[in-house]
Amino acid sequence: MLEITIESQKIGLNHPPFIIAEMSGNHNQSLERALEIVTAAAKAGAHAIKLQTYTPDTLTLDCDSKDFCIRNEKSLWKNETLYSLYQKAYTPWDWHKPIFEHARSLGIIPFSTPFDHTAVDFLEEIGNPCYKIASFENTDLPLIQKAAATGKPLIISTGMASLAELSETVEAARQAGCKNLVLLKCTSTYPAEPLDTNLKTIAHMRQTFECEVGLSDHTLGIGVSLAAIGIGASVIEKHFTISRADGGVDAQFSVEPDEMRQLVEESKRAWQAIGGVSYGPTEAEKPSLQFRRSLYISKDMKRGDRFTPENLRSVRPGFGIAPKYYSFCLWKKVTRDATKGTPLTWDLLIEEEMQTWKKR
Predict the structure, then answer these.
(1) Is residue 158 a contact partner of residue 138, using CB atoms and an 8 Å limit?
(2) Angle formed at CA 153 by CA 241 and CA 144, multiple of 5 degrees
(3) Contacts of 123 (CB under 8 A, 6+ apart)
(4) CB 337 within 8 A of CB 345
(5) How many Cβ atoms sit within 10 Å of the Cβ of residue 63?
(6) Max Cα–Cα distance, the chain, nearest Å
(7) Domain 10-54+90-274 maps to which CATH number in 2.40.128.630, 3.20.20.80, 3.20.20.70, 3.30.950.30?
(8) What do you get for the CA distance between the two ends of the chain, in Å?
(9) Which fold has domain 286-358?
């Protein structure tokens, strides 16, 4: 069975889902707010808080030509230039260390997504325990190789990637030294729609690439994440904010503290419920066996009376003969007087009737 450890946290199907709170740019360029987001994520029970490590200049060009503008009418960021969007969203590098320290003081794992080689070098200096590769960078093989070469666990979002592209990505990561890999099923729309999520891909990725698989979930609410756990997701990443009403570049598709708390609690329940293939009563069910139906005498009877539909019924509880013997017992004689409410047992059938049955 596959298993990965990030700091003290074990990740795999034998462990509760690893829940990542993605801060992204929801700090709104306030370090104080960033630290509050970390505190809220820890209180909600998230296992990790994730940052993004870039500057506008390491991610794009300061250019307002058509190529560098967001023209999609459905986008939350339509008409923005890439540079101006990343100016709003980036996390200043000098914030990383205090954010990491604060997270660790609260028992939550801090890590980040690097977007270029200099970001990997910087994150190595501050003790980043694992690396996340964003969907838009999952074909940037040199970046993937750079992160993989650290020997740290690597989490890669798979949004937009074809199977052939993912094969190249996984091969590049492994050849560069990655031994602990997690692929996250991802739909790179913001927000994403459940109809576009295709969670069945999770099981296929696990089988194809023989690694841990999870979900980077941009849908609203937590329902899709819980469904993913049932299909085998061992990692869930959700964008996180203190309050959507406060705004922020990702606020509209981010969960708030109460929702994150629900996700943590319900994901553990969903994981526990998967269990294994099981038939028959569990230990917890055994006391309930007494409430199954069985055959009971429903009217007072005298020795020698025959059982009829009027005096023999299948009812709860289950201390009598099983209902499957109802037809056999009808018209047989009772061995002794019996009152209403007496469970039918084999010794209530007269011996000659029993001998007849045994000869069959």
Answers:
(1) yes
(2) 90
(3) 53, 96, 112, 114, 131
(4) no
(5) 12
(6) 101
(7) 3.20.20.70
(8) 52
(9) Type Iii Antifreeze Protein Isoform Hplc 12 (3.90.1210)
pLDDT digits (tens, 9 = 90+) for 3-44: 899 998 999 999 999 999 999 999 999 999 999 999 999 999
Neighbours of 280 (CB within 10 A): 6
Question: Hey, how many other C-beta atoms are within 10 angstroms of the C-beta on 183?
Answer: 29
Which contiguous run of DSSP H or E holds residue 263? Answer: helix 257-274
The one-letter amino acid at 279: Y
Among candidate residues 219, 259, 266, 217, the one with its CA nearest the CA of residue 237: 217
* C-alpha–C-alpha distance, residues 264 and 68, integer Å: 38
DSSP characters for 265-302? HHHHHHHHHH-----S--TTTGGGGGGS-EEEE-S-B-
Map out the domains of the chain as residue ranges. 10-54+90-274, 286-358
Strands (E), 7-130: 9-11, 18-22, 48-53, 109-114
Q: Report the SS3 class of residue 192.
A: coil
Helix (H/G/I), strand (E/B), else coil: 190: coil
Closest CA to 296 of 281, 310, 313: 313
pLDDT in tens, 32-78: 999 999 999 999 999 999 999 999 999 999 998 888 998 876 777 77
Listed residue (176, 183, 186, 109) closest to 147, CA to CA: 176
- Please tell me the pTM assigned to this model: 0.88
